[in-house]
Amino acid sequence: MDEHTVFNSAQFDEPTPMVDGEDGGKAKKLKLLLKALLGLVVVVGILFVSAAFIYPQVAKRMQKEPITITYWGVSEDPLVEKAVIAEFEKNNPGIKVLYVKQEKQEYRDKLAVRIPNGTGPNVFAFHNSWLPQVSGILAPLPTDVISSSDFQKSYYPVAQKDLVKNGAIYGIPASIDTLSLFINTQIFEATGAKTPVTWEDFLKLSRQLTVKDEIGTIKTSGVAMGTFDNIAHAPDIIALLFAQNGVEMTRFLETSSRVEEALSFYTSFAIPPDNVWDLTFESSLSSFANGNVAMRFGYFTDIALIQSLNPSLRFSVEEVPHLFGRNMTVASYWAYGVSITNKHAKASFLFVKFLAQKETARLLLGNPPARVDLAQEALANPLIKPFIEQATSALSTIFSSETYDNGLNDRANAYLGNAVRSMLATTPVSSATQTFAKGVVEVLTQYAIR
Predict the structure, then answer these.
(1) CA 36 to CA 122: how far, in whole Å?
(2) The whole model's pTM is what?
């Protein structure tokens, strides 16, 4: 074979015939590729449309969903709370407030458990004597809620002492309530009695107004005072005597002689033969409402209870008696605070700021207002007047009744109740006082009150 034969043979060989399936396979692959590309274009298009149109609309709707904050309180008049909340929600359409009325019993314990574990309220009411117990679950109020200078100008000195710790403000007072003297107007008019100003006048008048039968049973009491278990606000009354007699809570043992004097004076109203009150009476509040007591001590919150028990009873409210130059009384009120574990802190602070405003407080003028600049408006109500007039000189006390705190108040009051019962059971006054004083010092130490 010559080179031409080889050359010609390689150049002119016939092509190898193709199998029918190969051409069809390539076409199928091409179709699949085109479908994949088309699907990718569709997905990208959907994502683009979502990003450009749908997502902003959804986000916008999500932004419009209102925040709900929970507010726990103990108000006996939830309609007032609802009116305040409605006004806030009208001014802040992005925030809803859910008010949940709590029973006072075990309320503080509930706060102490629920707030740390994140299931408690955003905003809650607390008693003015509780700061040593609840400061760990309260958030200090920022200056854009209320500044120190505004707080001092707006609220009474007792609130400035009760609700401020290390310069930080922890609460806004809801109202102010001060221990006052309730007088049965009918008995006073019938006997020509005048409102007592000093404790000496008070003691004499209480005996003059007491009516006993021939065997010494008290039919009409001059004043509900002297025992512990059937006297509403007995701890507060004794705390009033402590304050006016110069007892210093931070020097309780050192001023125990003044404690003894106050306890002796208090229990003398229930010790025969000159007693004006005893344990045969039912509650002092209901006895007063029934017209069987000429005088009793109480708070503004008692008025509605008395009127509900006896709508026809005529009574007035006056300032408490006092020692010379010692005209203070004791205060018992509730304040608003913000929980320290709070996923809606900004909205919660905004709500408390609203509660602190003068216009908001004016909605609550059915109660003695906490704000000093609303005092004149409230004085027009004769039943509110004495509570307001005494507010400037009011003091707080650990011996606050009916807070059901299962802590500071209840422990201090338990020692106080034991002291009164012991003295009425003829235990030597000095012995009962010393036991009481030591117990109080233990309580003060436990809650770091100095």
Answers:
(1) 53
(2) 0.85
